[in-house]
From TrEMBL:
<dbReference type="GO" id="GO:1901982">
    <property type="term" value="F:maltose binding"/>
</dbReference>
<keyword id="KW-0813">Transport</keyword>
<dbReference type="GO" id="GO:0055052">
    <property type="term" value="C:ATP-binding cassette (ABC) transporter complex, substrate-binding subunit-containing"/>
</dbReference>
<dbReference type="Pfam" id="PF01547">
    <property type="entry name" value="SBP_bac_1"/>
</dbReference>
<comment type="similarity">
    <text>Belongs to the bacterial solute-binding protein 1 family.</text>
</comment>
<dbReference type="InterPro" id="IPR006059">
    <property type="entry name" value="SBP"/>
</dbReference>
<feature type="signal peptide">
    <location>
        <begin position="1"/>
        <end position="22"/>
    </location>
</feature>
<dbReference type="GO" id="GO:0042956">
    <property type="term" value="P:maltodextrin transmembrane transport"/>
</dbReference>
<protein>
    <submittedName>
        <fullName>Extracellular solute-binding protein</fullName>
    </submittedName>
</protein>
<keyword id="KW-0732">Signal</keyword>
<dbReference type="GO" id="GO:0015768">
    <property type="term" value="P:maltose transport"/>
</dbReference>
Length: 431
């Protein structure tokens, strides 16, 4: 069964992360070295980076230069692969045994799948798993499969409610909405009082989860091998979305490239609120209404439904291809890129949340106020099921969501169709 990160647990973990002092001298958690002395390792490491090529890629390329300076005998071939294409592209390359990268920036929901197919090298006992006691436990869990480590956590995240403070203030609100009912009211007030849209929705399955979680629903119950996407709780959650659309509280969703459309509308000041994650910080702060007024950019937890406030736990892991011809260099590359120092630099420049506790107290990270702003949203993060089929559960749901948003269906029949599709994915699971 999925585990829910309670406010107390995550608050304690993140409080420790923010206040902890890094222990650079201790090596109790360090993994043993590779088969060759690090200074003698040579060769080329191909890295597929699935981050945003414009706002995030340049920062990772800066770190690559630092790595190559530390290990002059190792050359890194950097390839930015669009996130939407990366899962299928890697599976095709790994299956054929040709063209797969040595290292892949893997979505946390892909690790179990790739490991179950034999595409990933186990990392326990290698330099890639360095100082594991520094990792926050839930992000670290995403890299485990059948008791072995196949991924080390690069960044962690969740969804929050991002809002334009000035637009909400013009509509009469000094604080962002805390419940889904308040979200609807605030969005309608923004629409009527400012002329801007109240809320823009991203028509994607991942972004539907806060509504489902808010009413106590979920994809599946892993412990009991039960499909729960069409349960009364999940139905109630999706009905909240359906009402936001039909009431006009949400602007008419774009069915194609909805992420870019919602993001652009928000950073241009055309809508007051969207759901998004810390990966969008840099993009938003470069937008028309926030570039010269960053304090206008607000971050809050997703509004609560009748059961709770909940948003999916996300993030990315570094993984190593099982067929890599240069494993020693790949392990060293992962070790360097995932160090507390590197994580702190990424946090400071991009606002992405570290997975190592000491990174939160590093000066690079504390210099970025967005890191602290995301602490509260992280308290309502819900751990996703780390099963090989997890990534495949999104496509039927996004197809159903698109039909719902386009007015071609309603909640109950849509979720029944999704549940039927899940039966074809999760063999032997009950409804």
């Amino acid at each position: 069964m999925r585990r829910v990160l309670t406010s107390a647990v995550v608050a304690a973990a993140l409080a420790l992360a923010v206040t902890a002092c890094g222990n650079d001298s201790g090596d109790a958690g360090s993994a043993p070295g590779g088969s060759a002395a690090p200074a003698e390792v040579s060769g080329t490491v191909t890295w597929w980076d699935t981050s945003d090529a414009t706002t995030e890629g340049p920062v990772f390329q800066e770190l690559i230069k630092d790595f190559e300076a530390k290990y002059p005998k190792i050359k890194v071939e950097y390839v930015n692969v669009p996130f939407a294409d990366a899962r299928d592209k890697f599976k095709t390359a790994a299956q054929s045994g040709s063209g797969a990268p040595d290292v892949l920036r893997t979505d946390v929901g892909w690790v179990a799948e790739f490991a179950s197919l034999g595409y990933l090298a186990p990392l326990d006992g290698t330099p890639a798993v360095d100082k594991p006691d520094e990792f926050l436990p839930v992000p670290a869990a995403s890299g485990k499969y059948n008791g072995k480590t196949y991924g080390v956590p690069q960044v962690t995240d969740t969804l929050g409610l991002l809002y334009n403070k000035e637009l909400l203030k013009k509509a009469g609100y000094d604080e962002p909405p805390a419940t889904m009912a308040d979200l609807k009211k605030a969005a309608l007030d923004v629409k009527s009082k400012t002329g801007a849209g109240g809320l823009a929705l991203n028509v994607d399955a991942y972004f539907l989860l806060p509504f489902i979680y808010g009413e106590g629903g979920d994809f599946v119950d892993v412990q009991n091998k039960k499909i729960t996407i069409s349960s009364p709780q999940s139905v109630a959650g999706v009905k909240v979305v359906e009402d936001l659309i039909t009431s006009g509280a949400a602007v008419k969703p774009a069915l194609q490239d909805s992420y870019t459309n919602a993001e652009t509308a928000f950073k241009d000041g055309k809508v007051a609120m969207i759901f998004n994650g810390p990966w969008s910080n840099a993009d938003n702060l470069g937008g028309k209404v926030f570039k010269d007024n960053p304090d206008n950019f607000g971050v809050a937890p997703v509004p609560a439904g009748s059961a709770k406030a909940g948003a999916p736990l996300g993030g990315h892991d570094y993984t190593v291809y099982a067929g890599s011809k240069n494993l020693d260099a790949s392990y060293l590359f992962v070790q360097f890129m995932d160090s507390a120092e590197s994580q702190a630099k990424i946090a400071g420049k991009l606002g992405l949340l570290p997975t190592r506790q000491p990174a939160y107290s590093a000066s690079d990270a504390t210099a970025n106020p967005k890191i602290a702003q995301w602490q509260k949203p992280m308290e309502s993060a819900v751990e996703r099921p780390w099963i090989p089929e997890a990534a495949s559960l999104f496509q039927p749901l996004v197809e159903g969501y698109q039909k719902l948003a386009g007015g071609q269906t309603t909640t109950e029949p849509m979720l029944k169709d999704v549940a039927t599709a899940y039966q074809g994915i999760l063999k032997g699971w009950s409804l």
